[in-house]
Specification:
The chain is α+β, with helices and mostly antiparallel strands. The chain contains 26 helices and 19 strands. The longest helix has 28 residues, at 486-513.
Length: 657
């Protein structure tokens, strides 16, 4: 993958201010250390930082069509490049490179905005159609590759800027860094910031499956910017799901699709490695890659330095089975604390899940060993109900044995009280449940974090958010979800929030590209998703057996103990900040002075609960939720210190740091 950026004059065709494109490119050098390139035309400029993976010698960007009327800069991989190129050549298109990027201008020639339906892979792109005076910015279906954009007034006119990272926008010198409470609130609802708002005022994250069309000003007409959806996650109406009787044939088809997905993601002009944990997701990807290649691909494994979280012994079972010799990367409290500031700079958002540090270090190890591309197993849990809260949700719903008596809601209300939910939390949970058409499995976990808003947010912060609904900001067309099986509604929110906002960002692109590493996801292959989305829920959660069809497939490739091993949550201990003495930088970030500077949190409440944690006076009743909320406060304060105001602690500040 690469880094792209650009600037467009929405007021006319003025010259791009000197030095802007170069500064934007320099801010993204970690995304593409191999090459840089620029395109400048009256009123616009594009730049690209390239991480060379396909077409090493001739894939320099921008890439054009035959008459150079269409130009493209692009971040990502189109995995069906050989087949798609052959089809386009049979129609008379002439290719000048061996790079997959060149598919884009030729597909635009044939399909215009319908091009996106023909792109298969992971991408963020900017395309200029000079003949029609149009620029298009687009992002892949699942949100693997990021793309941020903003409109700013500058020098007497309006400009649109875009970049793969917010750092690229700031480097322009036109975009100020100011906080947006809506983005910070998403972190306390979802553990992540899936968009559209970001943590920065005026900066939007282009949503998965969306594109911007910018009709440039020409012939007296003003510029017009419109956002469009070309694809969205969809499931069958309830009762219309595929539910075949023959498991063997179903697994045969799943195996065919998964092998093809892995095979496509092994395509590169550089070596491909794989992440490997002790779970079935990465294990089956590695095993299939070994079958396709006829030998094991190099593997990299994280060792969490907590006995109850360490999966290296389970990963070793898979390694021996396929003949791999993994590189093991140890991560403990010291690593979490020592790299947390770097993690925040890479993520550009509050990072509440401290295990993201482990992925930051894993990608660094891949880079240090001379590799650029790694396969991963993300996406399986989202499509196949791999998280423990699906089972918790199912168990709680057993309370609804008497029709018309919502005992499950009473159970959930009781659990909120047991966990010390503050005033206002229950009403907030009820409002969300009514809006989205019922409580889903993902609300079981989001609720625990969400009620920390009422424990820690300041009155001013809550007042600024009173008209903001985080779910409607993600999908205003929620009514269509009500036609689906309740189980699929939960899968939708997993794929709409947790996948792009957390796994593909904080644990994916942002930490991997920080070390110039591209991650690839076979479970996010378009054909794999289409197959799994149509299946009846019983093939995903069979009784209390999660990822049922995947485990049936796993028996063909892995030891049975691996295929049926219960999922272990990949995480680092949340108490890294508190258990062994609160680090100085945490005390500084949570000081009354720092909390009043940001204004996001109630300083009295934060100080009170911090004392409870330090003195180990929290009981089982609310320890987990309070510590989780305090980590959220630390993460938000660290983000503010890094990007907004570097006076909150002694740590370095500024996005350049």
């Amino acid at each position: 993958m690469c880094g792209i950026a650009g600037i467009i004059d929405l007021s006319g065709e003025r010259r791009i201010p000197a030095g802007i494109l170069k500064r934007m490119a320099d801010a993204l050098i970690h995304r593409g250390p191999d090459e840089e390139a620029f395109l400048e035309r009256p009123g616009l400029g594009f730049t690209s930082r390239r991480l060379s993976i396909v077409g090493l010698l001739d894939g320099q960007q921008p890439i054009y069509n035959e008459d150079r009327s269409i130009a493209c800069v692009y971040n990502g991989e189109l995995f069906d490049y050989p087949e798609a190129k052959h089809i386009l050549e049979s129609k008379g298109h002439r290719f000048a490179t061996h790079c997959d990027t060149e598919l884009i201008p030729h597909l635009w020639e044939d399909h215009s905005e319908g091009m996106f339906e023909h792109l298969r892979g992971q991408f963020a792109l900017a395309l200029l159609d000079q003949r029609n005076g149009r620029v298009v910015l687009g992002r892949d279906r699942f949100g693997i590759c990021p793309l941020f954009w903003t409109r700013q007034r500058h020098d007497g006119g309006e400009w649109l800027l875009f970049a793969s990272e917010v750092k690229g926008l700031f480097a322009s010198g036109i975009v100020p860094a100011r906080p947006d409470p809506r983005g910070l609130d998403q972190a306390f609802n979802f553990f992540a910031v899936p968009g559209k708002p970001t943590c920065f005022e005026g900066i939007s994250l282009l949503q998965p499956g969306h594109y911007l069309r910018i009709d440039l000003p020409r012939g007296g007409r003003t510029a017009e910017v419109t956002e469009h959806t070309y694809w969205e996650i969809d499931f069958p109406d309830e009762g219309q799901e595929d539910n075949p009787a023959d498991p063997a044939k179903l697994v045969d088809e799943f195996e065919r699709l998964m092998l093809a997905a892995v095979d496509r993601r092994l395509r590169a002009d550089v070596p491909v490695v794989s992440y490997l944990s002790g779970g079935i997701d990465s294990s089956i990807v590695v095993a299939m890659a070994a079958k396709i290649r006829g030998r094991s691909v190099p593997t990299f494994t994280i060792q969490i330095l907590e006995p109850h979280l360490d999966e290296t012994s389970q990963a070793a079972v898979v390694s021996r089975h396929i003949g791999a010799n993994p590189v093991v990367v140890p991560v403990g409290d010291a690593e979490v604390l020592g790299h947390y500031h770097e993690l925040t700079r890479a993520a550009e958002a509050p990072v509440i899940d401290t295990s993201c540090t482990a992925l930051l270090m894993l990608a660094r190890a891949v880079h240090q060993h001379g590799y650029k591309v790694a396969l991963t197993g993300e996406g399986s849990d989202e499509w196949l109900a791999g998280y423990s809260w699906y089972k918790i949700h199912k168990l709680i719903n057993y309370a609804d044995v008497i029709p018309g008596l919502p005992m499950s809601q009473m159970v959930r209300g009781g659990l909120l009280k047991i966990m010390g939910a503050p005033a206002g939390a229950a009403d907030y949970v009820r409002m969300i449940r009514e809006t989205i058409g019922g409580h889903t499995a993902f609300q079981e976990i989001y609720t625990i974090m969400g009620f920390n808003r009422f424990r820690f947010f300041s009155e001013a912060m809550l007042e600024s958010l009173k008209d903001y609904h985080p779910y409607l900001a993600l999908d205003p067309n929620i009514d269509r979800l009500k036609r689906w099986h309740p189980f699929n509604r939960a899968l939708y929110w997993a794929g709409r929030i947790h996948l792009p906002g957390h796994l593909l960002s904080l644990k994916g692109d942002r930490v991997a590209m920080n070390s110039s590493v591209e991650t690839r996801y076979p479970f996010l292959d378009e054909a794999v998703f289409d197959f799994l989305a149509k299946l009846h829920p019983r093939w995903k959660l069979y009784g209390f057996k999660d990822k049922y069809i995947l485990r049936l497939l796993g028996e063909r490739y892995l030891p049975k103990e691996v295929a049926w091993r219960p999922k272990g949550m990949f995480r680092a201990p949340l108490d890294s900040f508190f258990e062994k003495g609160v680090p100085t930088f945490v005390d500084q970030l949570l000081s009354e002075e720092s909390l009043k500077k940001t204004g996001y949190f109630d300083a009295t409440s934060v100080q009170r609960w911090l004392r409870e944690v330090k003195e180990k006076r929290l009981g089982f009743r609310n320890r987990s939720s309070v510590e989780l909320g305090l980590v959220g406060v630390v993460a938000t304060q660290m983000w503010h210190h890094t990007f907004i105001d570097g006076s909150l602690s002694d740590l370095p500040s500024g996005w350049r740091a």
